[in-house]
Amino acid sequence: MLPDTFTTDHHELIVALASRYRLPTVYQFILAARAGGLLSYGPDQIDVIRRSASYIDRILKGEKPAEMPVQVPTKYELMINLKTAKSLGLTIPLSLITAADEMIE
After folding, report:
1. N or C end of the chain: smaller count of CB under 10 Å?
2. Residue 67 to residue 19: CA distance in whole angstroms
3. 49 neighbors 70 (Cβ within 8 angstroms)
4. 1 pLDDT higher than 90
């Protein structure tokens, strides 16, 4: 599922519909996996916020935003909802399980 304001705001409904129609879905934000989505893989939101705060600090101290380098996320999180996988009849490969940052059982 693509991340945007609509899907983020309505993630619980989307997760519920995916569950009802037995659709395995991948989300960018962990809140969807926590709400019952199969898995999420995306930037660590806490890390993004921390790094944003340092940029705001630099701007408030006088640096020009146009002269600052563009930042991209460097830390990503993989969360797997094993409960959802089981309800869908899916077996998650061990390699994916060992790579996960967090699992919901």
Report:
1. C
2. 46
3. no
4. no
